[in-house]
Design brief:
- With about 170 residues, the protein is mainly β.
- Helices cover about 5% and strands about 25% of the residues.
- A 6-stranded antiparallel β-sheet has the order 1-8-5-4-3-6, with no helix packed on it.
- The N and C termini lie far apart (about 50 Å).
- It binds zinc ion.
- The site of zinc ion has 4 residues, from loops.
């Protein structure tokens, strides 16, 4: 697996930590500054989740060819350098990243932020890992510890191709 955040990060094992009431933490929080690069943990297909309005939660799911699903929460929703909640798609998801796009491990997916219920915390990636068949989250810690940690993304998703023009006449 490729570590989902490039460059220096901080995290400690908080899987199943109490999050108030009966809620337990279903992933790991990887702390990094806003706009740090998020990359694909493995080869697979992405599904994007956008908020209904400005300032909402941007997140994505990577369904891997390896039978695992990774979920990335709290992508950036701010204009870079601000906390305005007005960043829009282009400040959350990398160019070429759209629902249904196939990516290789290490390709740039988007950027760290504080969207969703992380608005009042330090920016971080909440990362979940589950077998695609069961969707029951496992502790990502041993996989993160064993992952290859990149300083920079391996590349971008292939550019979206405009449909070929319809010949006239
Ligand atoms: Zn979390």
């Amino acid at each position: 697996m490729v570590f989902p955040v490039c460059g220096p990060v901080a995290w400690s094992d908080t899987f199943l930590a109490s999050r108030g009431g009966a809620r337990q933490h279903q992933g790991q929080d990887i702390m990094a500054p806003k706009m740090r690069e998020l990359v694909a943990a493995f080869d697979g297909v992405v599904t994007l989740h956008r908020p209904r309005g400005p300032g909402g939660h941007y997140w994505l799911v990577l369904t891997g060819d390896n039978g695992w699903t990774a979920t990335y929460l709290h992508l950036n929703n701010d204009t870079p350098g601000t906390d305005d909640g007005l960043g829009g798609d282009q400040s959350a998801f990398a160019p070429g990243i759209e629902t249904g796009v196939r990516v290789r491990a290490g390709v740039l997916l988007g950027w760290v932020g504080d969207s969703g219920n992380a608005e009042d915390t330090a920016p971080h990636l909440h990362f979940e890992l589950a077998p695609t068949a069961t969707r029951v989250s496992v502790n990502p810690a041993p996989y993160l510890e064993a992952a290859e940690h990149l300083e920079a993304p391996r590349g971008m998703a292939p550019p979206v191709q405009d449909p070929a023009p319809i010949p006239s006449g």
